[in-house]
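// run 5 | inverse folding | seed 20
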């Protein structure tokens, strides 16, 4: 019936402008016919495939995508909507593969789980999504939130109801009993009512429960699975270096996710957990702090991505203690922070695939680009660091056809900065112009 209505509608609206059509017919179906609705003149435009600039290109936007890229000197039709970015450095919208949009970095007291309802998390998500987009991050992967806040946030943004980045959404992170995702060290009499653990996580023990949990998350609409393979820093009663899930459990998680066409990310700090995650067929190892040479060799061999949040250490040691971070966790951070940065250097030098991911929410959303500084300090060129946050991130997300490049067919997700990030990568901390899907989110360029 719906199809029939659309077909009839299509018969009657033959001559209406694209904007009207887009209301009744899916954007995909419209795409080939949409006429250009904006032209963007660029000065230096970053080619994320080669890591170099193209001079003076003109981006032709039709609907929410780039229709063509024309050379300098291209004659824009008179009267057409034009954005002049010739004075700026133009990049594809950035991608952060590890964020927690529902978290706030100014609240580290565990007691909040006994005072606030999960609605608070949803409210946080709305605010943090806008901050993230304004910072030039037009796509993010959210890797663990209360069920199923990231899925709902994704859909509210996608439908145009609220502003925010494109979200590749996981459900709650999957954790063992007593693991990184559990609420440890309370009396057994203390138990939140709705969720038996920290509400950003779901507990599953043993191969069968892991299989069932992954399947259930797929049922509720996640794009990606997140599993906590090792202990962590920002949890009580566990150690980052110690394995939590077994190889058999991780293998079941990866197989079940892949069977459902989903990718899977594993939180793993310790060397043995990283090895098991790679052997299990996990797509990305998050943190990877204490990876040893064998892990690095295996990651290369399997094409496993490392997503290393090497800015966090600054915030956790300097700011988080002021807002309630317990001493136990400060001590754990000291045991992985510098080690992780050194591992980053070794892994990159050895040729491990890297995608940009920051653990935003540990530090305030919107500061995502502060990590670029450390990626360059620990071995990447600025161009390589930007590639990690564009083409390589898109590859990890399985979204290479949509994001990470300013080439025909990709979303018109475009950012501009005033000074050259290939000279000083910190320029990306001050994004002046953001367009997502052909719509300007912010334009704060100096006149
Ligand atoms: N979510 C991570 C954990 O709790 C954060 C680790 C942050 N520290 C770091 N050096 N990257 O384990």
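// decoded
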């Amino acid at each position: 019936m719906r199809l029939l209505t659309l077909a009839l509608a299509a018969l009657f609206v033959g001559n209406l402008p694209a904007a009207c059509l887009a209301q009744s017919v899916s954007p995909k179906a419209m795409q080939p016919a949409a006429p250009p609705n904006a032209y963007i003149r660029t000065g230096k435009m970053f080619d994320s495939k080669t890591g170099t600039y193209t001079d003076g290109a003109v981006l032709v936007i039709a609907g929410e995508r780039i229709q063509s890229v024309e050379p300098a000197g291209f004659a824009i039709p008179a009267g057409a909507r034009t954005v002049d970015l010739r004075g700026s450095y133009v990049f594809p919208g950035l991608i952060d593969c590890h964020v927690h949009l529902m978290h706030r970095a100014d609240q580290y007291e565990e007691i909040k789980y006994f005072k606030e309802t999960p609605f608070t998390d949803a409210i946080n998500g709305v605010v943090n999504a806008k901050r993230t987009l304004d910072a030039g991050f037009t796509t993010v992967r959210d890797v663990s939130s209360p069920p199923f806040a990231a899925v709902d946030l994704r859909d509210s943004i996608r439908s145009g109801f609220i502003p925010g980045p494109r979200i590749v959404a996981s459900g709650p992170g999957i954790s063992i009993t007593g693991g990184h995702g559990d609420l440890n060290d309370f009396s057994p009499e203390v138990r939140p009512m709705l969720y038996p653990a920290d509400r950003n996580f779901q507990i599953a023990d043993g191969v069968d429960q892991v299989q069932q949990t992954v399947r259930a998350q797929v049922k509720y609409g996640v794009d990606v699975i997140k599993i906590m393979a090792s202990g962590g820093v920002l949890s009580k009663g566990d150690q980052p270096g110690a394995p939590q899930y077994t190889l058999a459990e991780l293998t079941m998680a990866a197989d079940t996710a892949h069977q459902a066409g989903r990718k899977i990310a594993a939180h793993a700090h310790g060397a043995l957990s990283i090895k098991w995650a790679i052997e299990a067929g996990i797509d990305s190892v998050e943190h990877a702090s204490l990876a040893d040479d064998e892990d690095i060799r295996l990651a290369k061999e399997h094409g496993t991505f490392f997503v290393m949040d090497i800015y966090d250490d600054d915030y956790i040691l300097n700011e988080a203690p002021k807002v309630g971070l317990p001493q136990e966790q400060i001590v754990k951070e000291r045991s992985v922070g510098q080690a992780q940065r050194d591992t980053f250097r070794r892994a990159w030098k050895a040729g491990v695939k890297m995608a940009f991911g920051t653990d935003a929410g540990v530090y305030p959303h919107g500061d995502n680009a502060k990590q670029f500084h450390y990626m360059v300090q620990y071995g990447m060129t600025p161009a390589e660091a930007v590639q990690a946050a564009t083409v390589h991130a898109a590859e990890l997300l399985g979204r290479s056809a949509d994001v990470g490049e300013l080439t025909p067919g990709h979303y018109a997700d475009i950012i501009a900065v005033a000074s050259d990030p290939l000279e000083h990568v910190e320029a990306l901390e001050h994004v002046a112009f953001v367009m997502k899907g052909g719509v300007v989110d912010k334009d704060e360029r100096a006149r």
